[in-house]
Amino acid sequence: MMLPLAQSRADEASQNLVLVGEDEWYPYAALKDGKLQGLAVDILEAAYAAVNVKVSFKSAPYARCLMLAESGQEVGCFDSLKDSKLMKTLRFHQEPIFRAEIGIYARADSIELNLKPAALKGKIVGVTHGYTYTDEVDNDISITREVAPTDLSNLRKLVLKRSDYALIYTRVMDYLMSKHAGDLAGKLRQVGSIGQNDLYVSFSKKHPDALKFSILLDQGLRKIKANGLYHKLEQKWRIPNEH
């Protein structure tokens, strides 16, 4: 029979979790000063703490992050859209971590305004390796995709006229424009939007702990949204350049 102390240690161990976050997607998740930082990191840490789970983080490029979750090597990867492509191979929780807008960007001399996904038909569109951009965009076979390893590379290709448009989350764009002003300032502008989208942890369907931790994450997110902590974290990251 297991002793109470041994049982206690087993229970404690079962409430530790490791998640993989993207290494270059600030202000949501990025490797900075040797550790993963960002809005999503803080929200996940707070949500799990609310349900007595201690979460630690690894970082990886997003395509590898997804692969690690899909293969069952890791419990989950963040931040992901809950779209039909990813839902085939990954498990999603119910409560989004946050909402964010995907912007459509063109060169500064563009006179276009208020473009929607339909405007991308037949165009060369810059995308980042491994990312998904909603079913409407991802399933449109008329779009020629100019794939870049990072969002910054995606934008540089747009400046060089390798693409007609680039798809970048607006808050990521704001950060990159300030961080890489020499490359980008005055050269690009937002000309449309894919819309506001919910982002999630994409949990493994093969890892034995994934279902438990997906349920606990929903519980924790609801708690911190109800007690005001979620709002405080949003305010903390309102101006990411201050971090």
TrEMBL record:
<dbReference type="Pfam" id="PF00497">
    <property type="entry name" value="SBP_bac_3"/>
</dbReference>
<protein>
    <submittedName>
        <fullName>Transporter substrate-binding domain-containing protein</fullName>
    </submittedName>
</protein>
<feature type="domain" description="Solute-binding protein family 3/N-terminal">
    <location>
        <begin position="20"/>
        <end position="237"/>
    </location>
</feature>
<keyword id="KW-0732">Signal</keyword>
<dbReference type="InterPro" id="IPR001638">
    <property type="entry name" value="Solute-binding_3/MltF_N"/>
</dbReference>
